[in-house]
Amino acid sequence: MNFFQDKGFQIVDFNQSADIYVINTCTVTQEADRKSKQMIRKAVRQNKKSKIIVTGCYAQSDYEDLQKIEGINLIAGNGEKNSILQQLEKINRHDTVIRVNPAKYLKKYDSNLKNRSSSLRARAWLKIQDGCNRFCAYCKVPYVRGPARSRPVKDVLEEVSDLSSNGVKEVVLMGINLGTYGRDIDKGEVNLAKLISLISNFKGIKRIRLSSIELIDIDAELLDTFKRCSKFCHHLHIPLQSGDDKILNLMNRPYDTSFFYQKISLIKETIPDIAITTDIMVGFPNEDNNSFSKTINFVRKICFAKIHVFQYSNRKECLADLLPNKVDNRIKKERSKMLQRLSKELSYDFQNKFLNSTAKILVEDEIKDKEGRIYSRGVTDNYIKVIIPDFVGKKGEIVNVKLNQISSNYVVSSVQISR
Considering the domain boundaries, does residue 258 fall inside one? Predict the structure, then answer.
């Protein structure tokens, strides 16, 4: 957090002994809860004299559960992150444990909670939106992050300027429900499409990418911006969740498979080389073999470039927890493995379409193999991961490459020299 650095604190790797540990927790699944508690206990073990601060979504929703863990000095919900330093001063003065019952989530975007710009990266994640007004039956996020709220345009552009001056070439716009950006501020005069156009005016920024967006938020204006803005990366991550209309309805998703297919077809027609990646949930209550088969078939029909697969997890705040016909964990694991295998197959097919063609990549870093051979590493604008053997590119440099061969998670490429 930048306000710690402003007070002279030095950020160190989590595995190093520190005076203060800040664990920013997640609670989207039971596994996220488990990992959050695991990290807290690890921090307590590493330095018995350190101050342990727990914040984020798990702190927001399960304050009483966290109170049972010995060694925590401060529990602060999402609405209290800005008060952490003040609470820390109280702890230091009185050497006592302070457990703050998390306040209600924020109703306005907190612009103080931004990441510090860094010249060490070619790509930067830029949060512009928080919260969600859609209550999908499986999702705990609206209960812990609050209503959809947008970061002020002026504040976004100031950080873009800061990032650009620090050598960042690509910004990834992110939010809980990114496509709703602007609806709650400035009378809705600036939406996501207009914000992208404003960001594209910064000469130092060469690429603009979206982290994830719901299909129903991709309108004609955004598609037009996508088509005419040369800096807009040809990659969209659009959650599907299921390929069966019965399950989509139970999930309270705002579309059916017919609408999804028609909209994706329009996007691909507009941007032929686009990579569309997705999220699929397996094991949602009432997902039987027929429902899962429909998902497999629909995923093949769409031809996603990659699938992020995750298993349904009961969340006590969510409507899905009340549904009958829960799916056995063994079946969830089997279905998850099947979709992961399919994801690898579809990723290969997508990359294979572009072999022997040229592309521009943003050089992000360099790696060495066991033999000491050096590779530059980066991504194309449609998110094909690329390595270039025996080439050391400057971080943040845009390089023309020829895509030669698929190897594991990368496409091996060679530099194309302009003549």
Answer: yes
Could you tell me where the DSSP H helices lie in 171-328?
A: 192-199, 220-228, 245-251, 257-270, 289-302
Where residue 329 falls (left for φ over 0; alpha for ψ -120 to 50; beta otherwise) is alpha
Instruction: Specify the amino acid at residue 118.
Output: S
CATH code, domain carrying 395: 2.40.50
Measured CA to CA, the distance from residue 92 to residue 20 in angstroms comes to 11
Least confident of 3-17, 164-178, 235-249, 325-339: 3-17
Contact between 283 and 332 under an 8 Å Cβ cutoff? The reply is: yes
Residue percentage of the chain with pLDDT more than 70: 92
CB contact set of 248 (below 8 Å; sequence gap of 6+): 241, 242, 255, 256, 257
Question: Which of 373, 366, 287 is CA-nearest to residue 328?
Answer: 287
CB 193 within 8 A of CB 181: no
* Structure tokens given for 318: 């969510």
Last residue of a domain, one of 233, 262, 279: 233
| 267-296: average pLDDT | 97
Q: What is the pLDDT of residue 118?
A: 46
Parent domain of 90: 2-94
Q: What is the separation of C-alpha 312 from the centre of its chain, rounded to a whole number of angstroms? A: 18
Dihedral angle sign, alpha carbons of residues 134, 140, 143, 148:
negative
Give the position of tokens 């990992």: 35
**Is the pTM of the predicted complex or chain greater than 0.85?**
yes
Q: Is residue 183 part of a domain?
A: yes
Structure tokens at 375: 């590779």
| Assigned domain for 315 exists | yes
Cα 307 to Cα 111, 235, 275, 282, 333, distances in angstroms = 32, 13, 11, 12, 15
Do 276 and 326 reside in the same domain of the chain? yes
Q: State how beta strands 358-368 and 398-407 pair.
A: antiparallel
Query: Which tens digits make up the pLDDT trace of 79-115?
Result: 778 788 888 777 766 555 555 555 455 556 666 555 5
In this structure, the number of other CB atoms found within 10 A of the CB of residue 314 comes to 14
230: tokens are: 């040369």
More confident residue, 32 or 417: 32
**Sign of the C-alpha dihedral, residues 217, 308, 374, 411?**
negative
User: How does residue 208 score in pLDDT terms, banded at 50, 70 and 90?
Assistant: very high
Residue 53 near residue 91, CB atoms below 8 Å: no
Domain tally, the chain: 4
Query: Amino acid identity of 56?
Result: G
Q: What is the mean pLDDT of residues 360-368?
A: 89
Class of residue 19 by CB neighbours under 10 A (exposed 0-12, middle 13-18, buried 19+): exposed
Q: Is the pLDDT of residue 68 over 50?
A: yes
